[in-house]
Specification:
By secondary structure, the protein is mainly beta. Among the domains are: 46-70 and 350-465, no CATH class; 76-253. Helix content is 6%, strand content 38%. The strands form seven sheets. A four-stranded antiparallel β-sheet has the order 1-28-27-26, with no helix packed on it. Strands 2-3-4-5 form a four-stranded antiparallel β-sheet, with no helix packed on it. Strands 6-7-8-9 form a four-stranded antiparallel β-sheet, with no helix packed on it. A hairpin with a 4-residue loop joins strand 3 and strand 4. It is globular and about 80 Å long. It starts with 5 loop residues before the first helix and ends with a strand.
């Protein structure tokens, strides 16, 4: 029997080890090509399994960073610069490299491959961003929250100010009052105290990964808090002080500032849900604003089936003059009429093709009939979102709390790697992008990448006009 030299065995073993990742990459790219992942997107006129869902809307690119590893476009807000009722600037940030972009709507959005954008700056682990006019000069500032993933720095919020003189963005630095514990992963601006100057609202989670309940004993949570300026209208990051709204909430991602009880003060609604939130703590929470930076917390719905930072939105769905809170769940939407009591809940069932892990929910009048419709979107489950799943869809409001589902985009059939790679629709802004008289949708898809982004920020053209 011929002896094999140890050195040759070592070389063979190394060759196998080196070839495995290349073979895996070749396999997944071959799968993507076979599934049509990289095809030029064409509108699907009809899904053979669900013909009643209608035709897809046309999807067009807004922004897709092609820089290496510039992944995870997980923020989206917009701003109307000239007061004409149409948003001019859109903001997103790519979490992985931390690049922050202000994107300008082009004059002819149907005819450009990608909208013009400006790199505002770079923040480590850029978890969330928003536009807010902190100094009330009509030009919004860019705010970005830094998480604690991949960095030893504490969580914080940074501010950038636009300089019209040279059309550049100036970094004003971190807000000292925001530097602290936990992991800030969602920020928005809203006037909470009624003085005409927006406050900064921030929500977060603990700074450790998933684990058992016993491992939660030492976690410090970012909670839910607000930052208000001591000298209102004067922009200085040192002027802000912190007011804690809820120090105990485990996940304050996706909160919505809105006047829920219509008393003139902006309240807050949020679903406390994440992959590691203790099940007995999951549910829908509201924080009623009593003025003077004081809030009354209520848990109006308990649900231990939540998982994926499910979102809520607030609006008058039944046109009775009072707001409802809508929670997007895997199987359905729950509609809560807070003004009629915590137990006044209506279930709006989703079609089978839309029953999947979900996050995004947005209320808007899609077909211009004077009634708010429900926009919903799904996220992958362990990397997979099938072609027969309505990745983005709308529930058209027919009155009397009856809804008809229609597809906006079918899933691509992409197969990602595990929990954190796949087709994952995150946030949206509703706006008449092409100025044809109906509401279009701008949306971001957070984790959809291989070695480069497949979808980041896109807009869907409403076919009704």
């Amino acid at each position: 029997m011929r002896k094999v030299k140890p050195r040759r065995l070592l070389f063979k073993a190394l060759a196998v080890l080196i070839s495995v990742p290349f073979a895996a990459a070749a396999f997944v790219y071959a799968y993507d090509c076979a599934a049509g992942i990289y095809k030029p997107y064409k509108t699907i006129a009809q899904n053979g399994k669900y013909p009643e869902m209608g035709a897809e809307w046309t999807m067009r690119n807004v922004h897709n960073s092609r820089l290496p590893f510039d992944f995870l476009a997980n923020g989206l807000t917009a701003w109307d610069l000239d007061g004409d009722g149409y948003d001019d600037w859109f903001l997103t940030q790519y979490e992985f490299r931390g690049n922050i972009y202000v994107i300008k709507r082009p004059e002819h959005p149907k005819s450009v491959a990608q909208w013009e954008s400006t790199l505002v700056g770079t923040i480590k682990n850029a978890e969330s961003s928003c536009l807010g006019d902190l100094d009330c000069d009509g030009i919004p500032e860019v705010l970005v929250s830094q998480g604690v993933e991949g960095t030893a720095e504490p969580t914080s919020i940074s501010v950038y100010q636009y300089r019209p003189s040279d059309k550049s963005w100036q970094a004003l630095g971190k807000i000292p009052a925001s530097v602290g514990k936990g992991h800030i992963h969602f920020i928005r601006c809203a006037d909470l105290d009624g003085d005409g100057v927006p406050e900064i609202i921030a929500g977060g989670r603990g700074n450790t990964g998933a684990g058992t309940k016993d491992q939660f004993a030492g976690i410090e949570y970012a909670g839910l808090f607000m930052l208000s300026a001591q000298n209102a209208g004067v922009l200085n990051v040192k002027n802000y002080h912190k007011t804690v709204i809820d120090p105990e909430i485990e996940s304050a991602h996706g909160f919505v500032p809105a006047d829920i009880n219509q008393d003139g003060y902006t309240d807050i609604a949020v679903a406390n849900s994440d992959f590691d939130t203790p099940k007995d703590r999951m549910g829908l929470f509201v924080y009623i604003n009593k003025g003077n930076h004081s809030f009354v917390k209520s848990k109006i719905y308990a649900d231990n089936t939540l998982y994926a930072k499910e979102q809520v939105d607030v609006g008058d769905l039944d046109n009775d003059g009072e707001n409802e809170i809508v929670l997007h769940r895997k199987e359905d939407f729950k509609v809560f009429d807070f003004n009629k009591g915590a137990h006044h809940v209506i279930t709006v069932e989703k079609p089978a093709c839309a029953q999947n892990r979900a996050r995004l929910v947005k209320l808007a009048d899609i077909n211009g009939d004077g009634k708010l419709d429900i926009i919903g979107a799904l996220i992958h489950e362990n990397g997979k979102l099938g072609k027969n799943k309505a990745a983005v869809f709308v529930m058209l409001n027919r009155g009397d709390m009856r809804f008809t589902p229609e597809v906006i985009k079918w899933g691509d059939g992409f197969f990602g790697f595990g929990e954190f790679n796949g087709e994952k629709w995150d946030l949206c802004v509703t706006q008449d992008i092409d100025r044809d008289g109906d509401i279009d949708i701008v949306a971001n898809c957070e984790e959809y990448n291989r070695l480069t982004n497949i979808i980041s920020v896109v807009w869907f053209e409403n076919p009704s006009k």
